[in-house]
Write a structure and sequence with these properties.
- The protein is an all-alpha fold.
- α4 crosses α6, α7 packs across α8 and α9 runs antiparallel to α10.
- Helices cover about 80% and strands about 0% of the residues.
- It has eleven helices and no strands.
- It starts with a helix and ends with a helix.
Amino acid sequence: MGCVFFFTCCPLPISFRLWLFCGWGGGGGGAGPPPRLSDHVLRVLSLIGISVPTFWLALVAFYVFFFRLQVTPGSGRIDPGMTPPPQVTGLYTVDALLSGRWDVFSSAVGHLAAPALVLALYTIGLLTRFTRSAVLEVLGQDYVRAARAKGLPGRVVLFRYVLRPALVPVITVAGLAFGSLLSGTVLVEAVFAWPGVGQYAYKSATTLDLPAVMGVGLVVGVVYLVINLVVDVLYGVIDPRVRVS
């Protein structure tokens, strides 16, 4: 159980950074008035990201980028002809770096790209829409109008005066979305033959291995609890009013 959880944790941090950077930056950049072409494009892309099922997107990505274009490696954690690095942590990327196996490291990173991107796309669309709504609400505040009246550039007003107050509802959604990534890994791991928690939970359920199923549920529950605790702490870091209250 510990090994498969670490295997699942390989693509999740990459997915987290992708959707946090793209969703927060895209939602904030697409909310400034007046509406521009980029704003409409971001809204369409975020709607597509929310609407497309993850398992279908994984199949399409595997077919297009591996089978047709051959720009990404196939399924598994490394190329079939390569020998895994000596096991230290169980993560091929880290173990390859520790052993100096740069060819294995590049292969492991390449195999992480497609699953991480597929897992990130849905949350990028969700986070973009929430960030845009929160930014539009903050843009109408008096201190934002005062900053604009002082002649500050629009980018300075957006990133210094608007995005931080708009982060409070966004990090709530981000925390829940990060926890939901674990549930979205089941079919994605099946498509990319990734031996993680999703595959482990599926095989345990089909073989009626009840202790393993309860273990997966316990792990996912602990992850949700930890993430919600981190989100509550971040409330005080982002908004001083929460610390005072």
